[in-house]
Amino acid sequence: MFLIILYLWFKEDMYVWLCEHEEATAACTIVGMINERQRYYDSADSYYEKACKHDYALGCFKRGLLAKERKQMDVAKESLQRACHLGHKQACGLF
């Protein structure tokens, strides 16, 4: 039970550390999703961008959706095309 509480308390810190120090692209995407949920859109974008630059399709897809929502159409198109190219089927046809 104690470990579960610790995890819930520090999960964002853990993912940030994994993203920043281990270049764990899935962790970068998770931090981006947490930040997006909290409406820290610039921070979310930077974490999605980091994941996308390391060829993580979900990171590219999430960045593309966020950019599209924020009317940043060049970033949206580039990110969604890259996600599609990396095999994320949902991204194909959204640009």
Q: Please identify the top-level CATH class.
A: Mainly Alpha
CATH structural fold name: Serine Threonine Protein Phosphatase 5, Tetratricopeptide repeat
SSE ordering? HHHHH
How much beta, percentage-wise? under 5%
Overview of the structural elements:
The protein has 95 residues and is an all-alpha fold. It has helices spanning 2-22, 25-37, 41-53, 57-69, 73-85. The chain has one domain: Tetratricopeptide repeat domain (Serine Threonine Protein Phosphatase 5, Tetratricopeptide repeat, Alpha Horseshoe). It is built from 5 helices and no strands. The radius of gyration is 14 Å and the shape is elongated.
Give the topology.
Layout: H1 2-22, H2 25-37, H3 41-53, H4 57-69, H5 73-85
Helix pairs in contact: 1-2, 2-3, 2-4, 3-4, 4-5
List the defining traits of the structure above.
mainly alpha; Serine Threonine Protein Phosphatase 5, Tetratricopeptide repeat; 95 residues
Summarize the structure.
With 95 residues, the chain is mainly α. The protein contains 5 helices and no strands.
